[in-house]
């Protein structure tokens, strides 16, 4: 896999690869995406093969702008125009009824399509030069932690991915919020850093939470996902130090806390994460990948507050723990 920079020459190179049906990973504001020409069935097939992702799991199509929605969705509900107007470009994916011509490969055989306009300047530049839309799931193997740097992408894939455009670390750090507008009631399929209250105030109505046992429509909703290699356990703040000490008896333990510990503990890799949800989300995946390298027997993560602004983080941690 080649590592491309974000200069004009390298972006043209990335576009040439995409036009040739190759896979190019690129940064978005949320996580790195594994991009392929959304209109090229072979490229979409190659994405599924590289990820090891089951064929019934749809991929998100990244659009250059809001107007491109009409090429993929039919009809475009009024609520979609509202949410897109308020939050695009940005970390929100809308699930809409798919247009008749859309290849079922992209939608995992479903009648709906996931669309988003990313706000990362490199993603915007790439989409604009490419002049089309890019299918792009997170650039990780199925079920693993999403990548937030180009080095993470290089650690996941080999030559099956032609290149990664290195745009530095992602700003949001967690995958987009997903709202399903394909049924009568708008539904939240995946919480993200665009929070429920903000969505509801733009929609002018409540969002229902989608039931989790609804099958494989969104792999991010499978009970086990976003997981490091080492087992991960969530622990309350009060028990964290004692749990770490106890687990360290049987091997290396990594701890992700939001505070420093006064005690020195043998066999414990104690990491301090930021106290605000935005900053925590930005570094969470990189920290999980980093502690995972030493192959700890256990990763203990301090439970995050049960508050709306922590909801997406709590959701990912719960899935990583399953
Ligand atoms: O932030 C993100 O959304 C990142 C960046 C690269 O844009 N992408 C991402 O893609 O997380 P992926 O494929 O790893 O997760 C997208 C989620 C999956 O759970 C997928 O099933 C769901 O979106 N999804 C896509 N299209 C859908 C559809 N038509 N109906 C239901 N869920 C859909
Ligand atoms: Mg993913």
Give a verbal description of the structure.
The protein has 322 residues and is of the alpha/beta class. Helices cover 30% and strands 19% of the residues. The strands form 2 sheets. It has an 11-stranded mixed β-sheet with strand order 1-8-2-3-7-4-6-5-9-10-11, sandwiched between helices. The chain has a 4-stranded parallel β-sheet with strand order 12-15-13-14, sandwiched between helices. A hairpin with a 6-residue loop joins β9 and β10. α1 crosses α5. The longest helix is centred in the C-terminal third of the chain and has 16 residues. The radius of gyration is 20 Å and the shape is globular. The mean pLDDT is 94. Magnesium ion binds next to loops.
The whole-number mean of residue pLDDT values reads 94
- Tell me about the biggest sheet? 11 strands, mixed
Oligomer: single chain
The unique ligands bound to this protein are: threonylcarbamoyladenylate, magnesium ion
Rounded radius of gyration (Å): 20 Å
Order of helices and strands: EHEEHEHHEEHEHEEEHEEHEEHEH
The largest sheet has its strands arranged as 1-8-2-3-7-4-6-5-9-10-11
Summary keywords:
alpha/beta, binds threonylcarbamoyladenylate, four-stranded parallel beta sheet, binds magnesium ion, 10 helices, eleven-stranded mixed beta sheet, 322 residues
């Amino acid at each position: 896999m080649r590592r491309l920079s974000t200069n004009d020459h390298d972006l043209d190179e990335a576009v040439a690869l995409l036009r040739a049906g190759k896979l190019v990973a690129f940064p978005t504001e949320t996580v790195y995406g594994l991009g392929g020409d959304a209109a090229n069935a072979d490229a979409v097939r190659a994405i599924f093969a590289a990820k090891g992702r089951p064929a019934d799991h749809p991929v998100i199509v990244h659009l250059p702008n809001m107007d491109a929605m009409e090429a993929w969705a039919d009809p475009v509900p009024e609520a979609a125009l509202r949410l897109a107007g308020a939050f695009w470009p940005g970390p929100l994916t809308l699930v809409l009824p798919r247009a008749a011509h859309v290849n079922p490969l992209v939608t995992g055989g479903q009648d709906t399509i996931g669309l988003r306009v990313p706000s990362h300047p490199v993603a915007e530049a790439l989409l604009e030069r490419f002049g089309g839309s890019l299918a792009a799931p997170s650039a990780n193997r199925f079920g693993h932690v999403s990548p937030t740097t180009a080095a993470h992408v290089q650690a996941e894939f080999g030559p099956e991915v032609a290149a990664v455009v290195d745009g530095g670390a992602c700003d949001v750090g967690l995958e987009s919020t997903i709202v399903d507008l394909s049924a009568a009631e708008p539904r939240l399929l995946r919480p993200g850093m665009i929070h429920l209250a903000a969505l509801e105030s733009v929609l002018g109505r409540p969002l229902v939470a989608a039931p989790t046992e609804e099958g494989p429509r969104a792999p991010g909703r499978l009970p086990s996902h976003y997981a490091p290699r080492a087992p991960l356990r969530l622990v309350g703040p009060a028990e964290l130090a004692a749990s770490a000490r106890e687990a360290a008896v049987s091997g290396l333990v990594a701890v992700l806390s939001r505070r420093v510990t006064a005690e020195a503990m043998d066999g414990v890799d104690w990491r301090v994460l930021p106290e605000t949800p935005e900053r925590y989300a930005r570094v969470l995946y990189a920290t999980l990948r980093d502690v995972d390298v030493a192959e700890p027997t256990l990763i203990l993560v301090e439970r995050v507050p049960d508050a709306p602004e922590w909801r997406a983080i709590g959701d990912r941690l719960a899935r990583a723990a399953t």
